[in-house]
Specification:
The protein is α/β, with parallel strands linked by helices. 36% of the residues lie in helices and 19% in strands. It is globular and about 50 Å long.
Length: 273
């Protein structure tokens, strides 16, 4: 399975220039090879967040929801249908604090496969810690007036209809479970889609930071994700571009949707172990 991918040439800086990084090669396209039997698509935090009018405070704090819903409606159906016709397995990474997945056979299999690692005990928290977290919540994200809507939204969390697991696909809630699925399937390259590329897909349990520590290459499909943006970056989605750069130099490759779909072999779906 051969297809082009984007990488960022982070060399060679020129110390003689006023800005040494101006000499970097920047974005370029390379020809890559994927081994279908050792590659999986990971769908992470592809949630149904309710209709636009349901939790207005949630949408005031999470501005990318309309972009995510467009991707879920337009990109996910053809992408998942094509992957499910190929040898690549589909894994799902869940989260959000609500149990909407423990009844699924793919999750029960992941739990069974995963080693029973001891839970990490958090450091002790004092009253000042609580005050500082409350200050961050009120003044940085998400804003005190939005917390009730966000809590109500997370209380009804579920898979988006176009991202719901089928046919016993693996479901993991942390890196240990996803790594166990990888070992069972012989997977060493994970291609992430879902939300958001600069937040959960990088840093949440089962995200790229976790899985790189387990030895996996972690790539993405640019059109199948979006990013958390701020006031200054939202008009041009600069945070998404920054996240794609980070993936290209630290974790894996950046694929285009059309190239990925053209390269997929149309074999039978990957059998479940």
């Amino acid at each position: 399975m051969r297809l082009p991918a984007r990488l960022y040439r982070q060399f060679d800086a020129d110390p003689a220039l006023p800005v040494p990084a101006a000499a970097y090669g920047g974005w370029h396209t390379v020809e890559t090879e994927l081994a279908p039997t050792h590659t999986a698509l990971v769908v992470m935090h592809a949630w149904d967040c309710g209709p636009p009018t349901a939790f207005p405070g949630w949408r005031r704090a999470v501005e990318y929801m309309p972009r995510a819903e467009k991707i879920l409606a337009e990109v996910f159906p053809p992408l998942l249908a094509a992957v499910r016709r190929s040898p690549l397995p589909v894994f799902h990474v869940v989260g959000g604090g609500k149990d909407y997945y423990s009844n699924l056979p793919g999750y029960r299999r992941a739990v069974q496969l995963a080693s029973q690692s001891p839970l990490i005990k958090p450091v002790a928290r004092d009253p000042v810690y609580g005050h500082l977290q409350a200050l961050r919540s009120g003044e940085a994200f998400p804003g005190r007036h939005n917390t009730a809507d966000i809590a109500a939204g997370f209380a009804q969390l579920d898979f988006a209809p176009t991202a719901r697991p089928v046919d016993g696909e693996g479901v993991a809630e942390n890196g240990d479970q996803l790594a166990a699925l990888c070992r069972a399937h012989g997977i060493n390259h994970l291609i992430y889609v879902g939300f958001a590329i600069n937040w959960c897909l990088l840093m949440s349990p089962g995200g790229m930071v976790d899985m790189a520590r387990h030895g996996c290459l972690c790539s993405t499909i640019a059109e199948a994700t979006t990013a958390v943006e701020n006031r200054e970056t939202a008009p041009t989605e600069q945070e998404k571009q920054q996240a794609l750069w980070r993936i290209a130099i630290e974790f894996g490759f950046v694929y285009n949707l059309a190239d990925f779909l053209r390269a997929l072999p149309g074999a039978e779906p990957h059998p479940q172990p």
